[in-house]
């Protein structure tokens, strides 16, 4: 009893050590952390850190779930979503369902800095990106083609449609509507390898704070589907007087609860970062007890934390922390609850 109490308290203390500057990012995406950290170490801005960090994952196709060549939709196309937020000015740039452009976080930043808008979507977002000088190229790779053709061969399973006929569990459509059943909770196929969005928070010693995300969404999604990542307050949120948060996981579920916004508001009300993350997860858990997801949180004094929901595919969540306590980014983990 005493021992377990001791372990738990020392664990949460180590999660909360404060020192600035700070970068926290989801998953063991180490080179993303290193890229962001080297921007901050060399005196760069928190926005540059978040952009470079997420862009690193877009280039490296982190876990196949960020950047080109991953998560083909029902038509075989890869589309990208990204968000960047300046917590000091409350400016945001976001893109969703972006096609043919690899650097989604770069386009999100261009939306923030080169337009009066906040979010651009779909084909028009791609045209905007091309006009801003981003290179248009095919996001399909042999790997994404292979994921797509295996799915076709397997009768389009897994499948995200419901309340349609004929037998949606076997067919690739076309789909006809069926009577809508309330309370249907069909099996969801969202797990650690189908949705590992990078979410990142960066803070410096001068009180600057930024957050961002980048993802290619969900394998086999219905074309047009946008998850939580580019949605402000869902995928990420930052407020220079409080802190920031970012989320990863089953975006279709998580975006209904604005977990990043909620976590920031809880920190505003005095919650420490670990507790704020935990409460944001609990709010979702109340309705979807086995959803797949995690949230990272940091406050402006450099304390940080994370929480995840215990699910069949997730018992422990890994994330990266970069601060002056260590020369290189450190892999941290938190047990899901
Ligand atoms: C992709 O597949 C094609 C045809 O099978 C092959 O010619 C090409 O070398 C492959 N590309 C890569 C990058 O593996
Ligand atoms: C950040 O969280 C730590 C740990 O709970 C707390 O001691 C500190 O006061 C918080 N900072 C702010 C600015 O709220």
UniProtKB/TrEMBL annotation:
Active site: 197 (nucleophile)
Gene Ontology molecular functions: N4-(beta-N-acetylglucosaminyl)-L-asparaginase activity; peptidase activity
GO biological process assignments: proteolysis
Enzyme Commission designation: 3.5.1.26
Superkingdom as given in the UniProt entry: Eukaryota
Site (Cleavage): 196-197
Pfam families membership: Asparaginase_2
Signal sequence coordinates: 1-18
Reaction(s) catalysed (UniProt annotation): N(4)-(beta-N-acetyl-D-glucosaminyl)-L-asparagine + H2O = N-acetyl-beta-D-glucosaminylamine + L-aspartate + H(+)
Region described as Disordered: spans on this chain: 166-189
Positions annotated to bind substrate: 225-228, 248-251
Entry's Gene Ontology cellular component terms: lysosome
Keyword presence, Metal-binding: no
Keyword Signal attached: yes
UniProt keyword annotations, A-Z: Autocatalytic cleavage, Hydrolase, Protease, Signal
Family statement drawn from the similarity comment of this UniProt entry: Belongs to the Ntn-hydrolase family.
Role noted for this protein: Cleaves the GlcNAc-Asn bond which joins oligosaccharides to the peptide of asparagine-linked glycoproteins.
Protein name as it appears in the record: N(4)-(Beta-N-acetylglucosaminyl)-L-asparaginase
Organism listed in the record: Austrofundulus limnaeus
Lineage: Eukaryota, Metazoa, Chordata, Craniata, Vertebrata
Gene behind this protein: aga
């Amino acid at each position: 009893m005493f021992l377990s109490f001791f372990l738990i308290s020392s664990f949460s203390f180590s999660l909360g050590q404060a020192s600035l500057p700070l970068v926290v990012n989801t998953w063991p995406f180490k080179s993303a952390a290193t890229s962001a950290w080297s921007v901050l170490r060399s005196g760069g801005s928190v926005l540059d850190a978040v952009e470079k960090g997420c862009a690193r994952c877009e280039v490296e196709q982190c876990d196949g779930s960020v950047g080109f060549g991953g998560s083909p939709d029902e038509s075989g196309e890869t589309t990208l979503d990204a968000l960047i937020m300046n917590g000091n000015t409350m400016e945001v740039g976001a893109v969703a369902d972006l096609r043919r452009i690899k650097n989604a976080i770069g386009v999100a930043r261009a939306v923030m800095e080169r337009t009066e808008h906040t979010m651009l979507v779909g084909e028009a977002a791609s045209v905007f990106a091309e006009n801003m000088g981003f290179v248009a190229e095919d996001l399909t790779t042999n790997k994404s083609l292979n994921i797509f053709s295996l799915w076709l061969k397997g009768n389009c399973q897994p499948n995200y449609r419901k309340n349609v006929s004929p037998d949606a569990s076997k067919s690739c459509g076309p789909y006809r509507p069926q009577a809508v059943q309330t309370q249907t909770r069909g099996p969801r196929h969202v797990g650690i390898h189908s949705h590992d969005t990078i979410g990142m928070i960066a803070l410096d010693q001068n009180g600057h704070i930024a957050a961002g995300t980048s993802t290619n969404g969900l394998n086999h999604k219905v074309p047009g589907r946008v998850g939580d990542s580019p949605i402000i307050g869902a995928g990420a949120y930052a407020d220079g007087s409080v802190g920031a948060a970012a989320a990863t996981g089953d975006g279709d579920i998580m975006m209904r609860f604005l977990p990043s916004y909620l976590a920031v508001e809880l920190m505003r009300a005095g919650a420490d970062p670990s507790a704020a993350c935990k409460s944001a997860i609990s709010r979702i858990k109340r309705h979807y007890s086995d959803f797949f997801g995690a949230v990272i949180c940091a406050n402006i004094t450099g304390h940080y934390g994370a929480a995840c929901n215990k699910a069949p595919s997730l018992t422990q969540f890994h994330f990266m922390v970069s601060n002056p306590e260590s020369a290189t980014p450190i892999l941290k983990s938190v047990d899901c609850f």
